[in-house]
Design goal:
The protein contains twelve helices and six strands. It has about 230 residues and is α/β, with parallel strands linked by helices. The two termini are about 25 Å apart.
Length: about 230
């Protein structure tokens, strides 16, 4: 059990089978620079908004998401935004360039993801653990995803119209925007980024609530202590 809402599921009907001790992700979710220093390292101004693109860690995700993300980024750049593309270690630069049509119109950054997320104003991020990492680091995510249509239909049969983004699942509501399948269009991405950026106070409250629900660092130690208590 690694999410807080799972405790109630396991302990339904008055049973006490499980205790939520926190998410192990919190133990390693650290930054080594402040916002200004990170932006300076990567050549970004602190006076302009910064968008981070994270199209996923699998080639299929990159293929389905990156083109729309880059077109949205080019529109935002014309309005004064700064944009960075985060390279997942599982996706080579050559593939990113291939999907982008040979040229990347935004800087490509690898190996500094947590610092970059903590320095960004908003992220366009493929649904997955990265959306949760971003939100916990104070970077509100626009959650995007495309499946094959067969997989999408199976997923909708299984979960209906419920949220799929982990921050929204933990919060129990559609706190951060989700754009799925045909909604992943440049104009819709731009609109979602701008709308999310306009509600900075609400975003801070959501991030604080998410952090509170996720618990604190030290989950592994607390889990070990509970297991020791079960030993004869």
């Amino acid at each position: 059990m690694i999410f807080p809402f799972e405790e109630a599921i396991f302990n339904a009907h008055g049973r006490r089978f499980a205790t939520y001790v926190g998410h192990p992700l919190l133990d390693g979710l650290e930054v080594s620079r402040d916002r200004v220093a990170t932006r300076r390292v990567h050549g970004f101004s602190d006076a302009q908004s910064l968008l981070v693109l994270m199209p996923g860690s699998r080639r299929s995700e990159v293929r389905l998401l990156l083109p729309a993300m880059l077109r949205a980024a080019e529109r935002l750049k014309r309005d004064g935004w700064q944009v960075a593309l985060v390279q997942a270690p599982t996706v080579p630069e050559s593939y990113l360039r291939h999907v982008a049509g040979g040229r990347l119109p935004v800087p490509l950054i690898s190996g500094d993801t947590y610092n970059l997320l903590a320095a960004a104003d908003v992220g366009l991020i493929a649904s997955g653990t990265a959306t949760l990492e971003a939100a916990l680091l104070g970077c509100p995510p626009v959650i995007v995803y495309r499946f094959s249509w067969f997989t999408y239909l199976l997923a909708r049969l299984a979960i209906g119209r419920r949220a799929i983004g982990l921050p929204n699942v933990v919060l129990g509501r559609a706190a951060f925007p989700e754009l799925i399948q045909r909604q992943v269009q440049p104009a819709r991405l731009v609109e979602a980024v701008c709308d999310l950026t306009s509600r900075s106070d609400q975003n801070r409250q959501l991030v604080a609530e998410l952090r509170s629900r996720m618990g604190t660092a030290g989950a592994s130690g607390r889990a070990a202590d509970l297991m020791l208590e079960l030993l004869p």
